[in-house]
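quick one before i forget lol
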Amino acid sequence: MTEHAYREYVAANLERLRRTAYLLCGDWHTADDLTSTVLVKLFRHWRRAAAFEHLDAYVRRMLVRAWLDERRRPWRREAAVAVLPEPPTPSEDPDQRLAVLTLLDELPPRRRAVLVLRYFCDLSVEETAEVLGCSEGTVKSQSSRALDTLRGLMEGDPLWT
C-alpha cells in the first residue's frame, strides 16, 4: 500500500474521525489534536494497517485510546479561562444539541466512549468491547449505567419533558 492509498483513506474519513473525536472529548480543538495524532500514528504504520480487514475499526480504536491517554495527562485538568465559540453547525434544535453535549460531559470517560461507539459509530457490543479492550459484559454494564445517568440528569429538565 502506498502513500496515495493513505491520502485517499484520510480524505474519505477525516470529517467522520473529527466528529467522533469531538463527541469523545467535547472540544473541537482537542478533537483536531486527537485526529492529527491518530493520523500521524496511522501513517507510521500504514503498510501494516492497510492490510487489516477492518481498517475503520482499527483507526477508531486508535482514536479512543488516544483520547483516554490524553485524559490521563495532568495538564488536561487545567480549565481554560476564555472559551472560544464553537463554529455553527446545522441542527434542528441547537438547544437540544448543546444539552446532549452537556450531558455527555457529565459522564466518566469510559462510559462516554461506550455511548459514542455504540450509538454514534453504531458499533455492536462485541465491536465496542474490542475497541475498548474490555469484555462484552463491561460494555453492556457501562452502557446501561451511562444511559441511567443520562436519564437521571434529564429528569426535571424542561427541555426533555
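fyi The helical segments are 3-25, 28-44, 46-49, 55-72, 94-105, 109-120, 125-132, 136-154.
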